[in-house]
Amino acid sequence: MVILVILLVSVYKYLAFVLLKPYFLWYLDTERFATDKDREKRAVTMTKLACDLPVYLSITALGFFVLKDAQFMSPALFGKGECKNILMYFPNTPPTEYLSEYMLIQLGLHAQTLLAHLFINFYDKKYYEFLLHHGMATFLIMFSIFINVNTIGSVVVFMHDFSDIFLVMLRIYADFRNRYKPVVYVLFLMTACSWFYCRILYFPYCLI
């Protein structure tokens, strides 16, 4: 399943990149990105973000479907369980329907991102920082699968995916030529609130 996800996502991102890049190149804010080089560079970034957005939306929806009735998914993240159950019966954790498949899909998505960055983004100024980020994310998901702590791993990736949706939308829309500033402010507020809630409040309260 992991290899299949890697292949499918790679094909999707390539096709979406080819189709969407001319659109973003046209609609970029020409005052902020005055030169052709700046516009080309930013259009590449925006296209990558636009390719990621449907992935974040889809995997977050799948995560909600899989986790909403799990005994360890707190109402604070739209679930019906309790945080204290997250390591109940470990290491013989009772199976949650479709949880293993969800984590394998997550592993495929992160492995694809790691491989794409490793072999394509050689000239990125933050190449090694992102290589560390993608490598650690892939390793941690794989590790949670191997030692049977999918309960923790699934909640971590779910809340990261959920909060990243608003960040990606903000980063795309903020660079549009005819952007409407109140929309930028709303997206920024939603990004800040979701990151603070998921990563500053919920993460240490329920998972640490």
Task: Give a description of the structure.
- This protein has 208 residues and is mostly helical.
- The chain has six helices and no strands.
- Helix 3 runs antiparallel to helix 4, helix 4 packs antiparallel against helix 5 and helix 5 runs antiparallel to helix 6.
- It is globular and about 60 Å long.
- The model has no long low-confidence stretch (mean pLDDT 87).
Top keywords for this entry?
0% strand, 73% helix, globular, 6 helices, mainly alpha, 208 residues
List the helices and strands and how they pair.
Layout: H1 2-27, H2 36-67, H3 99-120, H4 127-146, H5 150-173, H6 181-207
Quick summary:
Helices cover 73% and strands 0% of the residues. The protein has 208 residues and is mainly α. 25% of the residues are buried.
Structural class call reads mainly alpha
Number of strands: 0
Assembly state (oligomeric): single chain
Shape: globular
Instruction: Estimate nothing, just give the exact number of structural domains.
Output: 1
- What is the tally of helical segments? 6
Low-confidence stretches: none
Helix content: over 70%
Strand % is: under 5%
* Gap between N and C termini: 30 Å
Largest sheet: none
Q: What is the H-and-E element order?
A: HHHHHH
Average pLDDT, all residues: 87
Radius of gyration, in Å, reads 19 Å
